[in-house]
Amino acid sequence: MSVLMVGMSHKSAPIEVLERASLDVDAAVKLSHRVLDTPAVSESVVISTCNRVEVYVEADRFHGSVDEVSRLLAEQAGLDRDELVQHVYVHYDDAAVAHLFGVTSGLDSMILGESQILGQVRDALHAAQAESTVGPALNALFQQALRIGKRGHNETGIDRLAPSIVTAGLAVAGDAVAADDSRFLVAGAGTMANLAVRTLIDRGVTPQHIMVANRTYQSAFALVATHGVSAVRWDSLDVELAAADVVISCTGASGTVFNRDRIERATAGGRGMTLIDLALPRDVDPTVAELTDVRLVDISMLAALGSESSLSADVEQVRSIVEDEVRSFLAAKSASRVTPTVVALRTMATDVVSAELDRLESRIGHLTEDQQAAVRQALHRVADKLIHTPTVRVQQLIEDPAGLTYAAALADLFALDPSAVEAVTRISGDES
Q1: Which among 270, 53, 274 has a CA at the least distance from the CA of 258?
Q2: Contact 159, 113 (CB under 8 A)
Q3: Catalytic site includes residue 50
């Protein structure tokens, strides 16, 4: 079994395509289950953020799995298969491991080094655990990826440009956010909205200047209880919109929330407004940027910001960490595959010695106990010497792909019982 990843991100697809491919929580869960129904797939985890959709699976073959996962991703996203192929990327086995470790470290983010991805990957893993679509292989991989992501952020300054898309958006908005008397409207009440409210308060904005609106009023009120901000019902959104200086929108809606006419009415009379659209699909009509006294900050602008990062030293340090961790992870993975074969080989040798000793004891019963012990010791030494070289060699090869082939050759040459190898594998997995 090997890890396969099929996905697309801001690096491989334009924002317009990512908008169509974007999956909410329910859609991501549905896709994960559909992928798991594929015959060659035994585990699945789906990561869906505002700038990437990636499907990770544990599969026993490559080609059939790639075709099926790609087809399901295209269907779930409502994309034509030929269109998906133009923007999708595929990583397999070692490359899939390296890619995930890079993602959690912020190396593949729209805002280079942002730490928000750690929470998003953790949420994806928790969703897979809750839905029972993840097993021991992907669980171990994702847990290690999260640990590496934390290490990269703890040991370097890679996230100093912007720890999240929210902070990046606020940084681009500039003076409008810094004004002491600015009124903020946050549209949405999910994870991104929560982060937006918390970030504003951390930057010194008083809770009384922050209004939250969401289609489900109870969800918006939860932010009121947590942060002391105010909430407005969705059908009263336009009233608050007309009084807002800065709008941060992250609703998760499937269509446009703030069209040009709506913003034009809210800014009538020459009142200025800054809109920070953090949603994908986008909440704000891009043509809003053409209106006088209206400034729009959206995902496209933030993607450009991420490409201008000057964190070269930190990036190289994190890349070095990721490369070291990839090598360690793959070596441990190879060792776990080889070890059952070695244990089974030694067990077979021990069984052969025991059987021969039982046979000999009935024929050389006249030997003293010391002589019998000497015979037993001699047979064990012969067996140990015969299997010493192949077992040492297979341990030396665990960091090389050929090591797995060598282990298979050992099992075949010595006619090892497959069930014995599988038994050792199960025991090792239970202990880990």
Answers
A1: 274
A2: yes
A3: yes
pTM score of the predicted model? 0.68
What pLDDT sits at residue 178?
A: 67
* Rama region for 44: left / alpha / beta (φ>0; ψ in -120 to 50; rest): beta
Cβ count near 401 (within 10 Å): 12
Are 315 and 112 a contacting pair, CB within 8 Å?
A: yes
Residue type, 302: L
The pair of structure tokens assigned to 39 is 């015959």
DSSP 196: H
- Residue 249's beta-bridge partner residues? 187, 277
CA distance 268 to 46: 43
10-36 burial string, b = 16+ CB within 10 Å, else e?
Answer: beebebebbbebbbeeeebbbbbebbb
Mean pLDDT over 197-204 rounds to 90
Determine the Cα–Cα distance for residues 306 and 114; give it in Å rounded to an integer.
10
Say which residue the tokens 């805002």 belong to: 111
Phi-psi region of 204 (alpha: psi -120 to 50; beta: other; left: phi over 0): left
The span from the CA of 408 to the CA of 424, in Å, is: 15
- Looking at 50, 338, 342, 345, which residue is catalytic? 50
